[in-house]
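so ive been stuck on this for like two days lol. basically i have the seq below and the ligand is magnesium ion, smiles is in there too. i just want the complex predicted, nothing fancy, no docking runs or whatever. if the output looks off dont worry ill sanity check it later, just need somthing to start from for the group meeting slides
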Amino acid sequence: MAAIFFDVDGTLVRWRGDYGDVLADAFERADATVTDERLATYDERFFQYFGDFADDPSRRAFADVCDEHAVDAEPGELAEALVAAEFDAVEPVPGVESAVEALADRHTLGILTNGVPDVQFGKVAEIGLLDRFDARVASHDPAIEAIKPDRGIYEAARSRVDAERYVMVGDDREPDVDGAREHGFETVHVDATAADLSAPDFRTLATLL
Ligand SMILES: [Mg+2]
């Protein structure tokens, strides 16, 4: 039995359209006007608060946008609107449902993602697959506070499942391949921009299926 951990964004789910449209949708849902400056301020501040492990980074970033650009909206309402817009905008990466179903029969599956737990796990719930993942690890769980490729998040994942082998499946080279390998995982790289799942590391995949 292996413990197989999946990244979320670009691996299990992807956006219909691009993320700028999702963010714009959040402003519209909160009856606020969207401008490029407002979107840019949101992005910059979100990553700053996110990197600092501040509570509720999205609401804080929206609060800065409202202050600095005189936006007449509630930051909390904008943050809730963004989560709703994100949940409406996700779709499964083609091929992922059958791969997850096949692997879940024989292995313990987990999620290993950078992000806020409720948001990340909620996106997987939106595509109907959350129940397949027994171990759920997110960087912004207060008990973890480590972002891939930092050691702590991989160690948290390994501590959740007792397995002979640990495998990381993901789309991003540094967090999902290089970092995971350095911290005790075999890796499978998938490319969500391809029309179907790709797995350059066929040897690993062949031993799993
Ligand atoms: Mg990813």
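The two ends are 11 Å apart (CA to CA). The beta strands are 2-6, 13-15, 90-92, 108-113, 135-138, 165-170, 186-189.
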